[in-house]
Amino acid sequence: MSRALRLPQAGGVPSRPRIKERPVTTAAAPFGSPVAATAGGEAGGASATAAGARQVTKAYGTGETRVMALDQVDVDIARGRFTAIMGPSGSGKSTLMHCLAGLDSVTSGQIWIGDTEITGLKDKQLTRLRRDKIGFIFQAFNLLPTLNALENITLPMDIAGRKPDQAWLDQVVETVGLADRLKHRPTQLSGGQQQRVAVARALAAKPEIIFGDEPTGNLDSRSGAEVLNFLRRSVDELGQTIVMVTHDPVAAGYADRVLFLADGRIVDDMSTPTADAVLERMLRFSGDSRSAGLDSRRAG
Ligand SMILES: Nc1ncnc2c1ncn2[C@@H]1O[C@H](COP(=O)(O)OP(=O)(O)OP(=O)(O)O)[C@@H](O)[C@H]1O
């Protein structure tokens, strides 16, 4: 995983399409009950919060080697929005994402996906919830080389024995610009196209939320921009909720909101970020740690 802080490149910052305002509740609500407000127009009265953490602590190790990877984190992830998580290496970004996605357990506190508290679920229930409600996009595209693009996109639903919603699938394929590449195998696609297949695979099952772990980390800046544009469109046009861990201020500039972590805590929260504003904030972390005589970038 690249640790480098990437600088915005000339012309690399998108002119972001203006986001349709959705009446969402972003204030932290007491999570004993998930946020009761509903997003306007959402069918079925889905809560405005797609995921949330309350007083979440995650410790690794014991005694002198104990590390507090997350230290009493409270956060709500608004539905239908694109949230980026940033912070120095070792600040807890991946741990927060893994705990929110139910890939890792918490030491204390509560995690919610939609209206379901996942802390305390049994393994089997958690596996089912991850399968049904969560999409993942990783730095490595994780496509099966023997399957074509369409088969890769529908694979998770095939495994779950679910029939894809054809109209939705067509819309997703159209949104990520893959309509003329569906019969291609991964080796016949560029890195950017492969990651778009992975994005379509995550979107196809209509998950409650998609988590991306440096989804553009392996791509050149042009392919990265392509993928980020598709993530942006999936939020604006398909109403998807996305949480993305990134080291890249340009990538974070595509989000609606950036959460900054340091030493396992959320230390800043930026709305409608620009790459320059994110970069400036990230550089302050280096300044902070230098002036404190510490290196907050622990070896990862
Ligand atoms: N399995 C583990 N065992 C012990 N310590 C761990 C483990 N996973 C993470 N940590 C520690 O928890 C802290 C947070 O790690 P995490 O990977 O969440 O940070 P990060 O911000 O994602 O880092 P990076 O940007 O380098 O990927 C670090 O100090 C790390 O060394």
Automatic annotation (TrEMBL):
| PANTHER family with a match to the protein in the record | ABC TRANSPORTER RELATED, IMPORT ATP-BINDING PROTEIN
Molecular functions per Gene Ontology: ATP binding; ATP hydrolysis activity; transmembrane transporter activity
Name of the protein this chain belongs to:
ABC transporter ATP-binding protein
Q: Which InterPro entries match?
A: AAA+_ATPase (IPR003593), ABC_transporter-like_ATP-bd (IPR003439), ABC_transporter-like_CS (IPR017871), ABC_transpr_LolD-like (IPR015854), MacB-like_ATP-bd (IPR017911), P-loop_NTPase (IPR027417)
Q: Which CDD domains match?
A: ABC_MJ0796_LolCDE_FtsE (cd03255)
| Cited PROSITE patterns | ABC_TRANSPORTER_1 (PS00211), ABC_TRANSPORTER_2 (PS50893)
Where do transmembrane segments lie in this chain? none
SMART domains in UniProt: AAA (SM00382)
Keyword flag Zinc-finger: no
Of the GO CC terms on this record, one is: membrane protein complex
